[in-house]
Amino acid sequence: MSAVALHSALLTSLTDAGTTTTAEAALFWTLGPIMVLAALGLLFARKAVHAALAVVVVMISLAFLYVAQDAVFLGVVQVVVYTGAVMMLFLFVLMLVGVDASDSLVETIRGQRWIGLLAGVGLAVVLAGVVGRATYGRPTGLDQANGDNNPTAIAHLVFGSYVFAFEVVGALLVTAALGALVLTHRGRLAPHVGQKQRADARVAAGGVLTPLPAPGVYAKHNAMDVPALGPDGRPLEHSVPRVLRIRGQEADAREYAARIDRVLAGGGADRPVVAGGPEPTPPPAADPSAAHHGVPVPGAATAGAQDQEEHA
Amino acid sequence: MNPLLFAPSGAVAPVTADFSDDTWWIWVIKAVAIIVFLLTSVLIAILFERKVVARMQVRPGPNVHGPFGLLQSLADAMKLLVKEDVTVKAADKLVYIVAPMIAVFCSLLTFAVIPLGPAVNMFGHITPLQLTDFPVAVLYILACASVGVYGIVLGGWSSNSTYPLLGGVRSTAQVISYELAMGLSLVSVFILAGSMSTSQIVSSQTQVWWFLPLLPAFVIYIISMVGETNRLPFDLPEAEGELVSGYMTEYSSMKFAWFFLAEYINMLNVSAVATTLFFGGWRAPFIPADSFLQTGWWPVLWFLAKLWFFMFLFVWIRGSVLRFRYDQFMRLGWKVLIPAALIWVVCVAVVQGVRQFSGLDLRTTLFVLAGVVLLGLLASFAIPEKKKPTGPKRPPGPEVIDPFAGGYPVPPLPGQVLPPSPRKQRQAAAAAAGATNDAGTDVPQVTQEVHGG
C-alpha cells in the first residue's frame, strides 16, 4: 500500500505481533473518555437534541478509531451514513419538539420500565456470553488484513463471504420501510383543494377580490376613522378598519356623504345648495372661497375652515 | 474514446499521489496555504458575485471602496467584525455558539484532499500539490459536508425562535434528499475511475474528462451541488422572502460572518469537487500530457480557471432562476434526481461489469449499446401517440377573448388578443361614420397587439 500522509502518523497501528503503537494508544485514551462521557450524556441529557448531539460525538469519535485502525472506508462511511443521514433524520423529528421541551418521564405503557430493564439485562448476558466464549486467531497485522487496499478488501468481504447476510439484512430493511409506509398511509377523504380551486371559490363567493381600500384615501382627512372615497365620490365604509367600526369609533359616514352630496350638487361642502338650480362648480383658481373646500391650505384660512367644519 | 478510458481497476494503485517525500513542515506549509487560499478566495468570491450579478442586472455593482470597488469585501468583513455581537437570551447558549464553528470547521476540511496540481519541487522536496489523499478521499469530502450541515441545523434550533427553526428543519430535509442524489452521481465516476481517491480520479482523466461520458451524472451533480450549498434557487433554509434569514436570523457580527464564510467556502468546495471529478482536475484541455504546461506549477492555473468557471455558474444560476417552492424542491429531489441517478448508476455498472467480466473489447460493447438504444428508439415509434383531446377548430389569426368570461378579468394568453377598448370602439365607429360622410379621408388603422405571438 502506498504511503499516505495521514496513515504514516496514526495508522498501520496493529503490528503482526498483535501490539498497538503508542500513537494509537494515545488516541484511544483521548477519545475513550470523551466517548464514555458522551454516551452518559445520551442517558442523562434533559433535552432530546442534546442527547442526539452526544450520539453524534460518539459516532465521530468512533469513526476516528476506525480510521486509526486502518478501516478508512468504515470510518468515513460511518460518518456519511449514520452521522450525516440517520442522525439528521432523528434531529429532523426532534427539532419539531422545540428547544425548551424536555422528555416526559411518565410511563405510557404500564410496566414498560421493568420490561426494558429485563430486556437490557438479557442482552448484556447474551453479549457477555458471546464475547467471553469468543476465540481469537493469531493476529496477522492490518497490512495483510487490508490486502490490496481497504475499500477493495471490504468489498471482497461484503460481496464475497457475507453476501447472503447482507442480502437478508437488506430485505429486512426494505420490508421495514414498506411496512412503515403502509402503516402510516392515510387515504385522502376529501378532494384536494389547490391554489386554483381556492381562487375560483373566492371569485364565486363574490367578495372583494382586491385588497381593501385604505381609510382616508381621497377623503378630506386621512385619519383612520375617515372612510375613503370611491371613484364616484361616495364614502367606502369598508375602508375603515373593522375594529373601529365595531367599536363605533368611525367618523360619521352619513355626514361625509351629505357633505359630498353638497359638493356634487354644486354648493360648497359647508354651505347649503343655492336654490334655483345647479350652478356650475367654479374652478378653484377662479373662486378663491371655493378653493378651500377641496384642498386644505395651511395657515389662517385652514384654521377657519376647520372651525366651520366643527360647527357644521 | 479509447481503450484506456474504461481501464479495469485492478491494475492501478489505490492512490496515485506520492507523499513519501513529505516532511512535517511541508504539511504545515500546505495546510496554511490552503486556509489562506480559501479565506482570500471568499473575499474575492463575494465581490465577484456582487459584480457579476450586478452586470446581469444592468447596474455597476459595488464601485466605491477602492479601485473598481475591489475593497468592498474587506469593508464588509471589517463591518461584521466591529458590529455588536448579540446573543439571544432564550438561546441554548452552548449549541448557539458552537453551531457556526462547526459550519466553518467542516467547510475548511474538504480542500485537504483536493489536488491543486501535480508533483512540484517544494524547497528540494518533490511533493504533490495536495495536503493528503487516501483510498476513500471523495467519501471523506461527503462526510465533511454532511457534518457541516449540523452547523446550520443546530444554529436554527438553538436560536429558539420560529424562523430559524423553520430554516433548520428545511435544511435537514434538504441535506438528506440532495446528498443522496449527489452521492449517487459520484458513484458512476468511482466505477469508471476504479477508485475513490482524488489523485487517482484526476489521473484517470488523462484522455477524456468524465463529464463527457458521464453527462447525466454531471448534470445531477451540478443540480445537487447547488442544493447542497443552499444557494438560489435552492436557498430555502434562508429564504429571505419567507423566513427573514432562516437559520441565521438570530446571529449577528462574527457568528453571522462565520456562517457567511462557511457558505462561500462550501461553494468553493463543491466547485473544486466538480473540477476534480468531472472536469479533469488540474489538467488543461488539448495540451499533450508531457507538455511543460501540464507539469510543475502551471496546472494550478488551469485548476483555478475551472474552479472559477463553476463559481461563475453559481452566480449565473442565482442571477437567472427564481427560488423553488418547498414542495417543488422536494419533488425534484426525490422524484426526479434520485431515480435518475439510480438508473444511471445501474447502467454504468452494467456496462462496466459486462466489459470487465466478459472480456469484450470496448468497440463491441459500444456497438451493442448503440444497437440497444436504436432498438428502443424504433420501438418508441411503434407505440401509438397519445391522442390529444382536439378542441374546437380555432379560426386563423389572433383569437379575440372575453376577458371577463370566468367572472374576473384575465390577461390574454399567447395568441390571444383583447377586444378593442370601448374608447377605441367609439373612435372606430366615429371614423367609420366620418368615412361615410367624407370618403376622401384616411381611416386610421386600429392595430391590435398580439401577446407573446
TrEMBL record, chain A:
<comment type="similarity">
    <text>Belongs to the complex I subunit 6 family.</text>
</comment>
<dbReference type="GO" id="GO:0005886">
    <property type="term" value="C:plasma membrane"/>
</dbReference>
<feature type="transmembrane region" description="Helical">
    <location>
        <begin position="80"/>
        <end position="102"/>
    </location>
</feature>
<comment type="function">
    <text>NDH-1 shuttles electrons from NADH, via FMN and iron-sulfur (Fe-S) centers, to quinones in the respiratory chain. Couples the redox reaction to proton translocation (for every two electrons transferred, four hydrogen ions are translocated across the cytoplasmic membrane), and thus conserves the redox energy in a proton gradient.</text>
</comment>
<protein>
    <recommendedName>
        <fullName>NADH-quinone oxidoreductase subunit J</fullName>
        <ecNumber>7.1.1.-</ecNumber>
    </recommendedName>
</protein>
<keyword id="KW-0520">NAD</keyword>
<keyword id="KW-1133">Transmembrane helix</keyword>
<dbReference type="InterPro" id="IPR001457">
    <property type="entry name" value="NADH_UbQ/plastoQ_OxRdtase_su6"/>
</dbReference>
<keyword id="KW-0812">Transmembrane</keyword>
<feature type="transmembrane region" description="Helical">
    <location>
        <begin position="114"/>
        <end position="134"/>
    </location>
</feature>
<feature type="transmembrane region" description="Helical">
    <location>
        <begin position="154"/>
        <end position="183"/>
    </location>
</feature>
<feature type="region of interest" description="Disordered">
    <location>
        <begin position="269"/>
        <end position="312"/>
    </location>
</feature>
<keyword id="KW-0472">Membrane</keyword>
<dbReference type="GO" id="GO:0008137">
    <property type="term" value="F:NADH dehydrogenase (ubiquinone) activity"/>
</dbReference>
<keyword id="KW-0874">Quinone</keyword>
<feature type="transmembrane region" description="Helical">
    <location>
        <begin position="51"/>
        <end position="68"/>
    </location>
</feature>
<keyword id="KW-1003">Cell membrane</keyword>
<feature type="transmembrane region" description="Helical">
    <location>
        <begin position="27"/>
        <end position="44"/>
    </location>
</feature>
<feature type="compositionally biased region" description="Low complexity">
    <location>
        <begin position="287"/>
        <end position="305"/>
    </location>
</feature>
<dbReference type="Pfam" id="PF00499">
    <property type="entry name" value="Oxidored_q3"/>
</dbReference>
<dbReference type="InterPro" id="IPR042106">
    <property type="entry name" value="Nuo/plastoQ_OxRdtase_6_NuoJ"/>
</dbReference>
<dbReference type="GO" id="GO:0048038">
    <property type="term" value="F:quinone binding"/>
</dbReference>
From TrEMBL, chain B:
<comment type="subunit">
    <text>NDH-1 is composed of 14 different subunits. Subunits NuoA, H, J, K, L, M, N constitute the membrane sector of the complex.</text>
</comment>
<feature type="transmembrane region" description="Helical">
    <location>
        <begin position="27"/>
        <end position="48"/>
    </location>
</feature>
<feature type="compositionally biased region" description="Low complexity">
    <location>
        <begin position="428"/>
        <end position="442"/>
    </location>
</feature>
<keyword id="KW-0812">Transmembrane</keyword>
<comment type="similarity">
    <text>Belongs to the complex I subunit 1 family.</text>
</comment>
<dbReference type="GO" id="GO:0009060">
    <property type="term" value="P:aerobic respiration"/>
</dbReference>
<keyword id="KW-0830">Ubiquinone</keyword>
<dbReference type="InterPro" id="IPR018086">
    <property type="entry name" value="NADH_UbQ_OxRdtase_su1_CS"/>
</dbReference>
<feature type="region of interest" description="Disordered">
    <location>
        <begin position="387"/>
        <end position="453"/>
    </location>
</feature>
<feature type="transmembrane region" description="Helical">
    <location>
        <begin position="208"/>
        <end position="227"/>
    </location>
</feature>
<comment type="function">
    <text>NDH-1 shuttles electrons from NADH, via FMN and iron-sulfur (Fe-S) centers, to quinones in the respiratory chain. The immediate electron acceptor for the enzyme in this species is believed to be ubiquinone. Couples the redox reaction to proton translocation (for every two electrons transferred, four hydrogen ions are translocated across the cytoplasmic membrane), and thus conserves the redox energy in a proton gradient. This subunit may bind ubiquinone.</text>
</comment>
<keyword id="KW-1133">Transmembrane helix</keyword>
<keyword id="KW-0874">Quinone</keyword>
<keyword id="KW-1278">Translocase</keyword>
<feature type="compositionally biased region" description="Polar residues">
    <location>
        <begin position="444"/>
        <end position="453"/>
    </location>
</feature>
<dbReference type="GO" id="GO:0048038">
    <property type="term" value="F:quinone binding"/>
</dbReference>
<dbReference type="Pfam" id="PF00146">
    <property type="entry name" value="NADHdh"/>
</dbReference>
<keyword id="KW-1003">Cell membrane</keyword>
<feature type="transmembrane region" description="Helical">
    <location>
        <begin position="366"/>
        <end position="384"/>
    </location>
</feature>
<keyword id="KW-0472">Membrane</keyword>
<dbReference type="InterPro" id="IPR001694">
    <property type="entry name" value="NADH_UbQ_OxRdtase_su1/FPO"/>
</dbReference>
<keyword id="KW-0520">NAD</keyword>
